Structure to design on (506 residues):
């Protein structure tokens, strides 16, 4: 009895590789047999209708799915639509009958990975299509994992810059506090002691402000994916964060804010876009120059232009600036990911980012986001 | 601690932070040193042309001319003046860079006055030996 129970739990724990959606039990049997013959280690879950299929998909992570077009309750196309809507990334292979090629074409447009027509040889073709799909899914997953690691490494660089900025902002007033305290210890003149104590309190407030401006970012900024975002506020936050770095000491920032509409998005990510652009502008100017930030509202979008007075970007380089790992910075200074991450974030918000061609010195980056309707 | 002839020693303090200039110069004066303080490398370079100083204490992150550039200028133009770097950036990379550029010492903020005083005394000894050579 207990043995049986154990087996069951083991079976339940084992993750299935493939979800087979086939209402005809004979077809399901032959498909399973053909796949197992191809790879005996494959683990296949079988369901016989569309709603059960969606239920299974929400329960577990499959690596590929075989979908018969003619299934009860929901047709194959609607299943594909639903998969897309829910954001599942697994490759789907559709099995259709003769004369259903137009359905296959329509399904391919909806993100179908491959299709196999039920011909005399389909049981030989299907395992090949499945193995291709599994391979593609594996590669996709590895790519995603790599991307996550890259974003993490870019964050580490940003944190490093931020940390040295914070260190500088805190250590200076700390020096004052420590020396005032040392002097007080040698004093017995009460009015002078009071004066120095007041100075210690003022410097402590200054440190507290620096710390709170840092915490503000993680505490107050919404984690919500669809928070209402005011461009000017986000840019101010980005400026506050970026300028914590002492490397901004000789950069004059001019704000020309004319935008007032809001848009929906992830505030942390959008802030990251502007921090990356500000840092690039600072580096392009070798740490000294004028940085102009201009915002304005269009009909359907709200736009920001960030212009620096740096060395500019030549045409040959302009083509590559959004490529991951492309950098003109000194070794150890940039990961070459700042702009590619900014671009990915902007595009995820259905916005646009580009560099403007211009004759004069410096570079201008334009970022626009569609406004909420 | 012996006061010796510290009265005659003049220290140039370069820091763009007012609270650092105020406190350190006051403390050093109490210890008997003469102190002249400026808020930028530019002003320091100008001042060095006009009046002699014995020791320089220099910040690193400053507007206009950075502390590192100021250090290089002093080392090449006034090799007999020891330069003590005093920085809010307390990472080993910054310290190494300062030492490579021949800073006399590197101190990380916040530092206690007795620590600064010790380094100043060592710098005075060094300066004396430099003179004797």
């Amino acid at each position: 009895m207990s043995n049986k129970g154990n087996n069951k739990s083991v079976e339940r724990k084992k993750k299935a590789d493939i979800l087979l959606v086939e209402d005809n039990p004979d077809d399901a049997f032959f498909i399973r047999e053909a796949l197992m013959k191809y790879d005996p280690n494959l683990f296949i879950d079988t369901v016989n209708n569309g709603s059960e299929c969606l239920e299974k998909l929400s329960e577990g992570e499959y690596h590929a799915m075989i979908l018969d077009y003619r299934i009860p309750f929901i047709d194959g196309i609607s299943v594909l639509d639903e998969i897309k809507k829910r954001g599942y990334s697994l490759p789907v292979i559709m099995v259709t009958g003769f004369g259903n090629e137009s359905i296959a074409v329509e399904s391919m447009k909806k993100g179908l990975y491959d299709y196999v027509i039920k011909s005399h040889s389909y049981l030989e073709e299907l395992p090949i299509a499945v193995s291709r799909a599994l391979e593609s899914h594996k590669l996709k997953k590895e790519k995603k994992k790599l991307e996550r690691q890259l974003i993490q490494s870019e964050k580490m660089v940003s944190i490093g810059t931020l940390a040295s900025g914070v260190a500088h902002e805190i250590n200076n007033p700390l020096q004052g506090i420590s020396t005032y305290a040392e002097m007080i210890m040698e004093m017995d003149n009460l009015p002078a002691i009071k004066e120095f104590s007041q100075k210690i309190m003022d410097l402590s407030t200054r440190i507290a402000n620096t710390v709170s401006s840092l915490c503000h970012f993680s505490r107050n900024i919404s984690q919500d994916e669809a928070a209402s975002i005011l461009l000017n506020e986000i840019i101010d936050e980005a400026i506050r964060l970026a300028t914590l770095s002492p490397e901004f000491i000789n950069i004059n920032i001019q704000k020309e804010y004319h935008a007032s509409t809001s848009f929906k998005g992830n505030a942390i990510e959008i802030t990251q876009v502007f921090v990356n652009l500000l840092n690039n502008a600072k580096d392009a100017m070798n740490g000294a120059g004028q940085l102009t930030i201009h915002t304005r509202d269009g009909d359907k979008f709200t736009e920001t232009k960030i212009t620096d007075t740096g060395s500019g970007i030549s045409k040959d380089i302009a083509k590559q600036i959004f490529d991951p790992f492309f950098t003109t910075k000194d070794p150890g200074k940039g990961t070459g990911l700042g702009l590619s991450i900014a671009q990915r974030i902007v595009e995820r918000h259905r916005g646009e980012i580009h560099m403007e061609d211009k004759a004069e010195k410096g570079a201008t980056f334009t970022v626009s986001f569609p406004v909420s309707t | 601690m012996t006061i010796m002839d510290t009265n005659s020693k003049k220290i140039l303090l370069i820091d763009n932070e007012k609270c650092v200039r105020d406190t350190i110069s006051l403390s050093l004066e109490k210890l008997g040193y003469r102190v002249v303080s400026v808020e930028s490398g530019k002003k320091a370079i100008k001042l060095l042309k006009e009046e002699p100083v014995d020791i320089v204490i220099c910040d690193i992150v400053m507007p206009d001319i950075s502390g590192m550039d100021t250090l290089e200028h002093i080392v090449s133009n006034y090799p007999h003046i020891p330069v003590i770097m005093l920085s809010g950036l307390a990472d080993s990379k910054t310290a190494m860079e300062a030492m490579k550029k021949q800073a006399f010492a590197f101190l990380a903020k916040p530092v206690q006055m007795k620590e600064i005083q010790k380094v100043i005394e060592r710098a005075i000894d060094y300066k004396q030996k430099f003179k004797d050579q």
